[in-house]
Amino acid sequence: MNIIYVNWDCFGGEDLVQAMDALGHHIYITQMSEKCHISYDEEFAAKLTEIIKAEHTDLVVTFNYFPTISSVCETLHCRYLAWMYDNPSIKVYDKSITNQCNYIAAFDSALVNELKAKGVETIHYMPLAVNAKRMQFLDITENDKIRFSKEVSFVGSLYNEEHNFYDRLAAASKDEELMGYIDGVIEAQKKVYGYNFMAECLSDEIVEKIRKALPFRSSHDSYLEERQVYADYYLARRLAFLERVELLALLSKFFSVSYYTHKQDRQIGKAKNFGPIHYFNEMPKLFRLSKINVNTTLRSIKNGIPLRAMDILGAGGFLVTNYQEDFLKHFEPEVHFTYYTSKEEAAEKINYYLQHEGEREKIVANAWELICREHSYEVRLTEILKNMGMIF
Q1: Is the pLDDT reported for residue 163 higher than 80?
Q2: N- to C-terminal Cα distance for the chain?
Q3: pLDDT tier at 219 (50, 70, 90 boundaries)?
Q4: DSSP secondary structure of 346-390
Q5: How far apart are CA 390 and CA 392, in angstroms?
């Protein structure tokens, strides 16, 4: 099969290309324009059109969904596979998602259910994958062992970047009552795992106040609801900041905690901030060499298994994560991973598994065996292409 992979600055691109090549497909790689991330790009569309024709293309593949690419593929009767690994992603709500060329593979079953309920038949549930072969042959040096042998580690954004949506809203609205209500919703959601109700709590009156202060308007034919944008971009990211800071601060009272994030200038409790870590070359070593790897999922991911959790399991790491419904579709708690429903329970689980090394190592081995058997890129791609009717 002739496949065009449209690359952008995403995680997993190299792994996806390697898997397509290993399955015997001919791969042509082109770079996506920056404009495609924002709006329809006529110049890139023309370029992609010529490449598709010249390469006698059967399939175009991207991580995440891009309307420009879908429109080109629809015109040329070429299939388009968009494998979602972000949620939220506003572009997946574009009217073009109903194009018949599309096969949108989404890792969050809640997103699939939401769009199918609105009549979208081109979106399908598919968890993310792991390059098991690459992980199997990690070259871990003595220096790596010194750098990355941690008791408890966390990798991820704190969502405390300057000009974040929450702070911009507070500054623009100057409305203490509005921000107090939003803070109350966030605090309530913080106590509940497995059901995200923040959008439901944004009444028409609250939405109107947010719109006046910091407006977002989707196109009239988009499948995206305005209140969902505010919940996912304003509230969920603020909640992630609070959850991650509070969890790390609590854990650091009892354990040696190391965290890796974009900024190295923030101190959380007794935890040690090591700044950013390289996704491809360093992060898998940290996951494997850490006794415990903690995951907290951005709440805009309602049910899905986030990429970071799959990366931990795929690297041969022990995963302690917040509850997410889709984990239970593929993994068994206390057999392949463990989950918590409060930061106090997270501390209890971590303490238990630090004291029971044999059980911890058995769970790691179970997870690794299952990842290799069922969650490699080759397995997932084969499943997707069969579902698309492109291989049999």
Answers
A1: no
A2: 13
A3: low
A4: HHHHHHHHHH-HHHHHHHHHHHHHHHHHHSBHHHHHHHHHHHTTS
A5: 7
